[in-house]
């Protein structure tokens, strides 16, 4: 983790300086940016391992920046933690829907920030590490998920998933037939205890189904909607 690089887009120089200093003291290379333009230019030049993103910015708001990151192939899978003003529930929901991985309300403590940063870096870097243990392999119908290799196939055809889509499918495949609520999936996959009307689970289920269908038509039916409750991995693949 000592080689990890974090980019922080923040227009408050005091918060920016303190955060960069704290990250550096723990061996995390961090670069700060006060404007969206220079931040996006830096991302185009060198992709970071993690982005800390303030919502309230003077030039372009952080949600617009997040949308830009998720729209670019090079940065669409980079973990992003939003830093929001306390009580901005709508921004939190919208940010998660756009693909943010976590959020932290201001004012925040450095200990909590570091814990969240380390958790996101561990999660994003885990597939790249060579594990000595036997890789977990889950299968359901024609869908096979290999956690050790971080691959998914549907009827033998590779399916390219984002980290969050992969984790969502893994969570559903770990409990076949069991209905998992949206709040439960949000907590297990996104590690956040917040719903507030966010549709991020629904959005990710939709894209997951689309990718499964593109690889093997019919496989998307394995991810079933239980109206008013949530989702489960069911026998739709065979029906």
Topology at a glance:
Layout lengths: L4 E5 L3 H13 L3 E5 L2 H10 L4 E5 L7 H10 L8 E6 L3 H10 L3 E5 L3 H16 L11 E4 L2 E4 L4 E4 L2 E2 L4 H11 L6 E2 H9 L9 H16 L7 E4 L3 E4 L6
Parallel strand pairs: 1-2, 1-3, 3-4, 4-5
Antiparallel strand pairs: 6-7, 7-8, 8-9, 10-12, 11-12
Walk me through the structure:
This protein has 239 residues and is of the alpha/beta class. The chain has 2 domains: 5-128, Response regulator (Rossmann fold, 3-Layer(aba) Sandwich), CATH 3.40.50; 137-237, Orthogonal Bundle (Arc Repressor Mutant, subunit A). It contains 8 helices and 12 strands. The strands form 3 sheets. The protein has a 5-stranded parallel β-sheet with strand order 2-1-3-4-5, with helices on both faces. Helix 4 links the parallel strand 4 (80-85) and strand 5 (102-106). Helix 3 packs parallel to helix 4. The longest helix has 16 residues, at 110-125. The relative contact order is 0.11. The model is unreliable at 127-134 (pLDDT under 50).
Q: Decide which structural class fits the backbone.
A: alpha/beta
Characterize the main sheet.
Answer: 5 strands, parallel
What is the C-alpha radius of gyration, as a whole number of Å?
A: 19 Å
Strand order of the largest sheet: 2-1-3-4-5
CATH class of the largest domain: Alpha Beta
Number of strands: 12
Order of helices and strands: EHEHEHEHEHEEEEHEHHEE
- Shape verdict: elongated
End-to-end distance, in Å?
46 Å
Q: How many DSSP H or I helices?
A: 8
Low-confidence stretches: 127-134
Number of spatially distinct domains: 2
